[in-house]
Write a structure and sequence with these properties.
heterodimer, A: alpha/beta, 6-stranded parallel beta sheet, 16% strand, globular, B: 163 residues, alpha+beta, 4-stranded antiparallel beta sheet, 9 strands
Chain lengths: 564, 163
């Protein structure tokens, strides 16, 4: 039987096992929406802005490990989606975004709601496709999911002209596709892996530095076993938190610009560094000239282009993180070499001295709410089991520092692009994937206003997301930099005319709470956790001048932190 | 260092812009770029001449390989290879200059492929350096138009860029 392009589209999603998509209708996708309306296998979530559709799909993907799917119309639908696509690209999140396009004969004619979606998204996708023939639609969709989810994952855009969705052809969904130009590596080179293990066993001051790649490749279990077997200290990047249990004694905290003193000092002083699924981002390395001056470096990554891009490494291994780690684990177990216990003991003594500095201490006697205290209490109240999304800024760093993630895929934030407005729609995506779990969005009064319209979406679908608004009436991270580096000239960082967030939440039918005293923090959080049918907006009025410490200033090495 | 990078890429609309976009987005330089279909109509062959330190060239080749449309890549400059570029040049050819231009063209083993009473079109093929040398040898005042094809390259011997 022949189906229309729109029907084929829907059948492809069903056959791909997609249970939920996030979107917003418009002229170019009306045939598709009509086909979606006439089935009930794929659930469509109507957002209030296309940026939120891509962020929600992204949050869904990060929490579940399955690709997120978004559907938007041509022109402004596509351009609004770009921020979300770029966010997913920078963090290697598997996303398939379908954009409507004007009918094929009108392409290039400056038609109504026409934009060159392929051209606009090209620099921020793993790949994109323009479907020019209905007979290629199913295969293209299969390819899109294949490319998005394999190798180093990433977003893929499929641009579908309106006339294609009306044309008919026979439908069959390919079971698998091969592409001669795309063959991602999984297994690492065994010679390199052997070399890496040999090097690791000679280490006196070893350090494991792991990133988002461990989570993307579902390698946490293997990483944990590997780390415990060796007894080495381990740090996670902002993107890698949860890959190794944060409450474990071998975990020395996050590293980087706002990483712990012990993590950064250990990085600076180590003699063998094993980088696993991490990409030596500038927020991690600080001044690259001063990075790990005494270390031999092993780097495991699925993307060859990530290796020796910023830092020249000694033993590169291209391959899937889990696969390579399993191989290394086997060699360690079977080999006769053991880590140097004596040297390791001395190394841990040194690290414990650094730990004793207690770099994350803050004033606990203040009668103003300290933002760190809110995150710490949230951790306590949720027993560390919540899914936590965040926006971008000071609150993001405090969330990363004070919520201890013991499991992967629980910490969801925009690390690479640093997209304010990400956290709330991402939380919706997580909540829809796990309706019974606790999902919290740690945000600030600046970030939350960038996608505040999604309160309406939460209302429509009854999403009990908890918004933890650390409200300091400043764009806090901007203000912190202005305090440190611009002689306290707080240019445009003060948020005047803020709304009454409680009333705002209530106007959408949600629950709003304003918390002004430290003594009320725990009670409010506990009360919020009981509400399961509506969003709860907790507006914490926090210390305006609190800063994030430690901090590596621009140009500084990892051992040149500003401490409180 | 100057490198000649040859690519086989899917002969699809947009493939060229992915390569060009990569170079501009990452700040790599392109000295010349040529592209045309091969004997297999589903593949195009592209030759890019670029400059950079070893680490930059390493990144360029890795990033190119990462593009889904790139099927295969070879850095010609890593081994013995032949490079050719074609020049078409229109020159004013009057009086004494007419004879002089004919002579220089012969010395460089070029050909005059169009003649009017006041102009020539000269065709010359060779490595980039030879084209540069020829352009220096010709009186700039007589040059009306210069068209260079950009460099094409091929490896010597058995080594071949094919799938």
């Amino acid at each position: 039987m022949e189906l229309t392009g729109a029907e084929i589209f829907v059948r492809c999603l069903q056959d791909e096992g997609v249970d939920i998509i996030f979107g917003y209708p418009g002229g170019a996708v009306l045939h598709i929406y009509d086909a979606l309306y006439q089935q009930d296998k794929v659930r469509h979530i109507l957002v209030r802005h296309e940026q939120a559709a891509t962020h929600a799909a992204d949050g869904y993907a990060r929490a579940t490990g399955r690709p997120g799917v978004a559907l938007v119309t041509s022109g402004p639908g596509a351009t609004n989606a770009v921020t979300g696509i770029a966010t997913a690209y920078m963090d290697s999140i598997p996303l398939v975004v379908f954009t409507g396009q004007v009918p094929t004969p009108l392409i290039g004619n400056d038609a109504f709601q026409e934009v060159d979606s392929i051209g606009i998204t090209r620099p921020c996708v793993k790949h994109n496709f323009l479907v020019r023939d209905v007979r290629l639609l199913a295969e293209t969709i299969k390819k899109a999911f294949y490319v998005a989810t394999t190798g180093r994952p990433g977003p893929v855009v499929v641009d579908i002209p309106k006339d294609i969705t009306a044309q008919r052809c026979e439908y069959s969904y390919p079971k698998r596709v091969t592409m001669r130009s795309y063959n991602p590596v999984v297994k690492g080179h065994s010679g390199q892996i052997k070399k890496a293990v040999d090097l690791i066993m000679t280490a006196k001051r070893p350090m494991l530095y792991t990133g988002g790649g461990v989570i993307l490749d579902n390698a946490s279990k293997t990483l944990t076993e590997f780390t415990r077997l060796l007894g080495f200290p381990i740090t996670n990047t902002l993107m890698g938190l949860g890959a190794y249990p944060a409450t474990d004694k071998q975990f020395v905290g996050m590293l980087g610009m706002h990483g712990t003193y012990e993590a950064n000092m250990a990085m600076h002083s180590c003699d063998v560094l094993v980088a696993i699924g991490a990409r030596f981002d500038d927020r991690v390395t600080g001044n690259i000239e001063k990075f790990c001056p005494t270390a031999k470096i092993v780097h495991i990554d699925v993307d060859p282009a990530s290796i020796s891009k910023n830092v020249k490494v000694d033993v590169p291994i291209v391959g899937g993180v889990d696969n390579v780690l399993k191989h290394m684990l086997k060699l360690v177990k079977e080999g006769s070499d053991k880590p140097d216990a004596e040297a390791l003991k001395e190394w841990w003594q040194q690290i414990d001295e650094w730990r004793a500095i207690d770099c994350l201490k803050f004033d606990r006697t203040s009668d103003i709410i300290k933002p760190q205290y809110v995150v710490e209490t949230l951790y306590k109240v949720t027993k560390g089991n919540a899914y936590v999304t965040s926006d971008v800024g000071q609150h993001q760093m405090w969330a990363a520092q004070f919520y201890k993630f013991d499991k992967p895929r629980r910490w969801i934030n925009s690390g690479g692009l640093g997209t304010m407005g990400f956290g709330f729609p991402a939380a919706m995506g997580v909540q829809l994937a796990f309706p019974d779990e606790t999902v919290c969005c740690i945000t600030g009064e600046g970030s939350i206003q960038m996608c505040i319209q999604e309160l309406s979406t939460c209302r429509q679908y009854g999403l009990p997301v908890k918004i933890i608004n650390l409200n300091n009436r400043y764009l806090g991270m901007v203000r912190q930099w202005q305090e440190f580096f611009y002689q306290k000239r707080y240019a445009m960082s003060y948020m005047e005319s803020l709304p009454d967030f409680v009333k705002l939440a209530e106007s959408y039918g949600h629950v709003g709470m304003k918390i002004e005293k430290p003594g009320d923090v725990e009670g409010a959080l506990k009360e919020a956790m009981k509400i399961r049918d509506r969003t709860v907006f907790l507006d914490f009025i926090t210390d305006q001048y609190e800063n994030v410490y430690p901090m590596i200033p621009a140009g500084g090495g990892q051992n040149e932190m500003i401490l409180i | 260092m100057r490198h000649i990078i040859s690519l086989l890429l899917e002969n699809e609309s947009g493939a060229l812009s992915r390569v060009a976009g990569l170079f501009s987005a990452r700040g790599y330089n392109i000295e010349s770029l040529t592209v045309a279909p091969t004997e297999d109509p589903s593949l195009s062959r592209m030759t890019i001449v670029t400059r950079g330190t070893d680490s930059v060239i390493e990144q360029i080749t890795k990033q190119l390989n990462k593009l889904i449309d790139v099927v295969k890549l070879m850095d010609m400059t890593e081994g013995p290879h032949i490079e050719r570029e074609m020049l078409l040049m229109k020159v004013q050819a009057k009086d004494a200059a007419r004879e002089e231009l004919k002579r220089i063209t012969d010395i460089f083993r070029g050909r005059i492929i169009d003649v009017t009473d006041s102009s020539y079109i000269i065709e010359l093929t060779g490595a980039g350096e030879k084209i540069d040398a020829f352009l220096q040898a010709v009186d700039p005042a007589s040059i009306l138009e210069v068209v260079r094809s950009g460099v094409s390259g091929i490896a010597r011997g058995d080594k071949a860029l094919r799938i």
